[in-house]
Amino acid sequence: MTKGSIHLKISVFLLLSMFFLSGAKVPVKSGGRVTHLSGTANVKLKQIVIPGQSVITGKTGRVELTFSDGSRLRIGPASNFQLVLHNPAQQRTVAKLAQGSLWSKIKPGKGKKIMVQGRHSTAAVMGTTYALSVNNTQTSTTVLEGNVGVHRPFEFDTLQTADQALNLAPSTFAAPTAPPPSGPPQVIEKPFHQIPNPVKVVPGPYEVSPDQWLQIIQNQRINMRDNGQAQIETIDPKALASADEWFQWNQRMDTQTVKTE
User: Fold this and answer.
1) Cβ neighbours of residue 238 under 8 Å, at least 6 residues apart?
2) Which of 24, 70, 189, 250 sits a CA distance of 20 to 30 A from 78?
3) Taking the model in full, what pTM does it have?
4) All residues at 6 or more sequence positions from 60 whose CB lies less than 8 Å from its CB, including other chains
């Protein structure tokens, strides 16, 4: 080994040491790592699903994605999920669930905005545990912990329009409680040219206007159909878990720790 090569190796070592000892941060990777895979799916274990990629599962397929902040998202059997946008530095995420089921446990964070769009509605969260299911007739959002803002679906085909749609998501969930519904579905409206706080709702039928967010709280479910027709109901988590194997499995998975690397 020549003196030149020895000096080069020492220089590289010193530079790396200075980098790590200075407290410099390694950039956070975009995307979610596959930390569980069972059944059939178009991804592999430990693969990183990046923005623009889809996760498609077979009849028995189940996939878990774990993100750099510790948030976890599980895709159920016969599902079609797409990660549209994920910017860890700005804490902004947009995804689509075209068909199937999804369970998401989001770690709270100041300024965090996450939007998952189903066929008939969009869910905006900042830190919560909720489930989403999509079929041909309705999109159901079930809140197990925290709060979720629900809106009629947005139209976005590019990263730019997805980011713009995320700007329309509420920043807080402070809102007055709406009066109990009676008779025909209620029409919930708002003044234009502003992003309103989500309106808290009680069980019953609603007709959601194109610009309104509804606040769905813990142990509530909203079933949204075409044109904003919605039904909100109270759920019993224990009864639901005892009757639904998908819920049982996700609750068990939530108690397990997972590493992203």
Assistant:
1) none
2) 70
3) 0.78
4) 38, 39, 40, 77
Which of 147, 165, 169 lies closest to 157 in space, CA to CA? 165
Give 86's strand partners: 93
Comparison of pLDDT for 123 and 182, the residue scoring more? 123
Compute the distance between CA of residue 229 and CA of residue 211 in angstroms, rounded to an integer.
14
Percentage of the chain beyond pLDDT 90 is 49
Name the CA radius of gyration of the chain, rounded. 21
The amino acid at 10: I
Residues 20-30 have a mean pLDDT of: 47
Paired tokens of 136: 């041909």
Reduced 3-state DSSP string for 70-98: CCEEEECCCCEEEEEEEECCCCEEEEEEE
Six-digit token string for 59? 């009849």
Q: Which three-class secondary structure state does DSSP give residue 242?
A: helix
- Going by pLDDT thresholds of 50, 70 and 90, the confidence category of residue 7 is low
| Each residue's pLDDT tens digit, 141-199 | 999 999 898 988 888 766 667 777 777 777 665 543 443 444 455 444 443 233 345 56
What the chain holds in terms of domains, given with CATH numbers, is 25-171+233-254 (2.60.120.1440)
Burial zone of 163 (CB within 10 Å; 0-12 exposed, 13-18 middle, 19+ buried):
middle
What's the pLDDT tens digit per position in 208-220? 887 788 889 899 9
DSSP labels, 160-198: HHHHHHHHTS-S----PBPPPP-SSPEEE---SSS-PPP
Cβ atoms of 239 and 233 within 8 Å: the answer is no
